[in-house]
């Protein structure tokens, strides 16, 4: 309910397998250095950097691609020899791969920042604030963070973007003081543009460059009430001036956010997300039986109903008598009625026995999941800025069947590990799945190509330096 802002960076939105951002070609700002920039670069050529990533904590009730991205970046930077730490906001870090590091508290405690939206709570006694920010209370809040609705949280979003002028000025100062006197970083990297209210005070007082990732913020803002939507976009554009560099996860999304936030080209970089291929076991696509997989929060926005309807249509074809559908990625309390309606459809068609929900989407759970599926399809209604689950599937040898929306065509072209379809309807998806599932040779070719692309193009172990190159031009 009240904590949906905390997970507004869901994918998306903490990783068990070290995803990282990798370099992309088209809109990427090429690194051309002035003499001073080259001098700064040489300074860190053989030195480690101190990098603080500020990320929202997460309740862990569903698959969060942005959370996986954030924790993977930090893990890869550490592996490369840099002093990288995660500073959590709102809630403790709970996803696999996230570590609540000793001596680093949770800033902007979820309960306190929500309460301070109401005047009566803006002058709480310190003992009460401390209680609301205590580990037991925040852990309880994390378990209850079951909604991702932007509607109703417009005022809180605006207040956070206002920074020192918002209702969380005290929390902002606490964060800045911690950075200034405790962490003393070379770079501060914030997880998403909804946290841009932090940037000016961090840059001015800590006196370090601020970097901001861009991924799916438009989904959150555009879901707001129309009376607030334009104001939030204007605030984002204004606060973008306080950031030294933006890193978008795809060419597609760089174009979206450059236009909507008026980001200068010299501030905008494009780096694809990547994963560690050694974290995934490659297997050829499952054929006995064939299984369609879905990895994401099971909700209407992620196209789960389109896939259910396509599966029902496929099962009417005798060639697919043994076809199965398997889903993982969790849900929120908001999704219960929606999922019940989808299950009712399968029961009515007497094919519920051919559908399975796997509750475990940890690393080990996903390894088991991908080893049992033939293709992956997550037909998100409006597409996504990236979709990390695509790389996890490709690394496991599972081809993709995705709508021709958002960054999906970009990722599939780059990997050669899947196909797209249009329009994003159950009928179009049924047609494309039929074409793919009845062509074993094509399935195998896409499987091999997809795995190879993760090893060579989307491999965080070989591309972690790209992020550092951007950092070094700023310090």
Q: If classified by CATH, what would the architecture of the largest domain be?
A: 3-Layer(aba) Sandwich
Residue share in β-strands: 5-15%
* Oligomeric category: single chain
Structural class: alpha/beta
Q: Supply the CATH superfamily name of the largest domain.
A: Glycogen Phosphorylase B
Task: Please render the helix and strand layout as text.
Blueprint: E1 20-23, H1 35-43, E2 50-56, H2 65-79, E3 83-89, H3 110-115, H4 126-132, H5 135-143, H6 154-162, H7 169-183, E4 187-190, H8 199-206, E5 210-214, H9 217-222, H10 226-239, E6 245-248, H11 251-261, E7 268-274, E8 291-295, H12 304-315, E9 324-328, H13 336-348, E10 355-358, H14 363-371, E11 375-376, H15 388-395, E12 400-403, H16 408-415, E13 418-421, H17 426-437, H18 440-456, H19 460-474
Parallel strand pairs: 2-3, 2-4, 4-5, 5-6, 6-7, 8-9, 8-11, 9-10, 12-13
Antiparallel strand pairs: 1-7
């Amino acid at each position: 309910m009240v904590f949906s802002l905390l997970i507004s960076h869901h994918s998306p939105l903490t990783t068990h397998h070290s995803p990282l951002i990798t370099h992309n070609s088209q809109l990427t700002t090429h690194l051309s250095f002035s003499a001073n920039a080259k001098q700064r670069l040489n300074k860190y050529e053989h030195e480690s950097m101190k990098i603080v990533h500020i990320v929202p904590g997460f309740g862990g009730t569903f698959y969060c691609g942005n959370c996986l991205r954030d924790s993977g970046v930090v893990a890869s930077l550490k592996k490369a020899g840099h002093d990288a730490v995660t500073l959590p906001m709102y809630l403790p870090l709970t996803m696999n791969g996230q570590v609540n590091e000793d001596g680093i508290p949770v800033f902007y405690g979820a309960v306190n920042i929500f309460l301070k939206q109401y005047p009566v709570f803006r002058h709480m006694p310190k003992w009460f604030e401390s209680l609301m920010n205590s580990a037991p209370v925040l852990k309880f809040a994390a378990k209850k963070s079951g909604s991702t609705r932007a509607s109703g949280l417009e005022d809180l979003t605006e207040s956070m973007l206002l920074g020192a002028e918002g209702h969380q000025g005290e929390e902002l100062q606490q964060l800045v003081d911690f950075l200034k006197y405790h962490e003393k970083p070379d770079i501060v990297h914030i997880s998403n543009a909804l946290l841009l209210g932090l940037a000016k005070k961090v840059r001015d007082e800590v006196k370090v460059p601020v970097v901001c990732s861009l991924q799916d913020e438009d989904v959150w803002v555009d879901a707001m009430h129309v009376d607030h939507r334009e104001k939030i976009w204007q605030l984002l554009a204004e606060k973008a001036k306080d950031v030294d560099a933006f890193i978008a996860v795809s060419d597609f999304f760089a174009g979206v956010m450059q236009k909507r936030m008026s980001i200068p080209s010299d501030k905008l970089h494009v780096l694809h997300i990547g994963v560690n291929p050694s974290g995934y076991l490659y297997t050829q696509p499952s054929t006995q039986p064939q299984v369609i997989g879905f990895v994401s929060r099971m909700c209407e926005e992620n196209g789960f109903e389109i896939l259910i309807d396509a599966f029902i249509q496929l099962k009417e074809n005798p060639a697919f008598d043994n076809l199965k559908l398997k889903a993982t990625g969790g849900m929120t309390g908001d999704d219960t009625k929606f999922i019940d309606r989808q299950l009712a459809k399968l029961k009515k068609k007497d094919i519920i026995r051919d559908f399975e929900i796997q509750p475990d989407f940890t690393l080990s759970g996903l390894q088991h999941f991908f080893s049992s599926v033939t293709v992956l399809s997550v037909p998100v209604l409006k597409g996504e800025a990236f979709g990390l689950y695509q790389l996890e599937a490709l690394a496991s040898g599972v081809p993709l069947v995705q709508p021709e929306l958002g960054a999906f065509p970009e990722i599939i072209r780059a990997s050669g590990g899947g196909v797209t379809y249009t329009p994003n309807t159950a009928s179009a998806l049924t047609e494309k799945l039929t074409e793919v599932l009845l062509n074993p040779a094509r399935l195998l070719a896409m499987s091999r190509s997809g795995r190879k692309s993760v090893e060579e193009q989307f491999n965080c172990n070989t591309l972690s330096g790209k992020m550092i190159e951007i950092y070094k031009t700023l310090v």
